[in-house]
Amino acid sequence: MSTKGSRNYRPNIHFTPPAMWTNDPNGMVYVNGIYHLFYQHYPEAPNWGPMHWGHAVSRDLLHWKHMPIALYPDELGMIFSGSCVYDRENTSGYGTKEKPPIVAVYTNHGRHGLEQQSIAYSTDGIHFEKSYQNPVIPNPGISDFRDPKAFYNPVKNCWSLVLAAGDRVHFYKSEDLKRWEKTGEFGPEGNLASGVWECPDLFQVEAEDGRKLWVLIVSMTTTTEDGRCRTQYFLGDFDGDKFIQQQKEEEPLWIDFGFDNYAGVTFQNLEEPLFLGWAMNWGYANETPTGEYCGQMTLARSLRAVKTEKGYRLAASFAGLEKYQHSAYPVNHMQRLCTDTFGMKVTGTKKITLSNAHGQKLVIQVTEDEVFVDRTHAGEHAFHEQFQMPQYCSVRIPRMKQDGKMELIFDVSVLEVLADDGLIPVSMVAYPEAPYDQVLLEGSGNVELYEIRE
Ligand code: FRU
Fold first, then answer.
1. For ligand 1, which residues put their CB under 6 angstroms from it?
2. Which CATH number applies to 323-452: 1.10.10.10, 2.60.120.560, 3.40.50.720, 3.30.420.40?
3. Backbone angles phi, psi at 437, to 5 degrees
4. Residues that are catalytic
5. According to CATH, what is the number of the domain 20-318?
6. Consecutive 10-residue runs of the chain (454 residues): their mean pLDDT?
7. pTM of the model
8. Count of beta carbons in the 10 Å neighbourhood of residue 189
């Protein structure tokens, strides 16, 4: 059980469940002006248990309305991670042309850990009906066989999905979302990190120079030494059947360099990739001092590709914050903070120290050479051994763009930094026992602050 925290750590603009547990975001899809977020959810306790799909909706990606639980465990097992598509042409026949269905494709995690893929559909975006044909992709004898991410395949004009299968991903295609045929694999060649592959995603991104690239995302559960869980990506092409890595790397490419951004994928049915992850780490997720709820999502981030000296890299920017960003005002040296949720726009080489009356400090620093984020003395940390380990307290990442700007958001207990124009994202949770009410700025460059009041 979670220990009861000394204060309410619930963030204001990051999604949290109404109560109890969440891990991965699932089934994210944009339909008729509404963003749907489903999520791994255990509604009985603030820790992991038999998985359901919780559900929330939003128009602005910051305010979420809780909806009834969408999927409950059944005779095939728990409801593990998966995706939704908006079946606009009613290829599945589960709706009508006038009322196209949302179709969910997810993993049933059954007895003895048997994992197979199932589907469910909804015509009102709230209530889901499971197919009597489940499982639609039975287990082929692989122990980790999960997390299908379905997407429209523009090469073959059909549906495709990518799912994690041990140390690789498998691709399938379908005309109607019900009958699936395997088309290819990727991995383990090309992989530069250790761990079990989870929560893949495949999508197209346009680089600033107009080049179109396909991005394969894979979340990896790895060892405590290696950070416990991180999300890797590969860049290349999609021939309609499988992903082909084109940009060979010397080191893994990470979606985020912090400790708390896992299992993220993109929304379906949008023109541009919009990514959102679980702002937590399996290492200590079950013990965080947040009381009635446990776990939260990152903010939604737009992804683009940028050409760097080392090849193309993904860069992220926050989505949905424009209306607050307009009210940013310059701050110098020292500033009192009257809000627990705020953003900063930063240029130059700066050290930013957020602190509170307990002397707790969260440090974000950009030097000529590196980006440094340190939560060692940021707040409560005794709730889990791993959270206190030096390798889970701070990160140093070599700069990727010398004149790059930094944007950061702090929201009660979640920090998201996008440094070097979004090439260096760093997500970290921190549990200050009183709100940070002061910001100290050192170094050269400019800082603008904006408050996010709700
Ligand atoms: C990733 C993951 C998925 C799985 C889900 C279970 O965090 O392990 O692979 O579907 O969580 O809750």
1. 23-24, 40, 51, 80-81, 107, 146-147, 198-199, 263
2. 2.60.120.560
3. -115, 10
4. 24
5. 2.115.10.20
6. 67 98 98 98 97 98 98 98 98 97 98 97 98 98 97 98 98 98 97 94 94 97 88 97 94 97 98 98 96 97 95 97 94 93 97 97 98 98 95 96 96 98 98 97 96 85
7. 0.97
8. 7
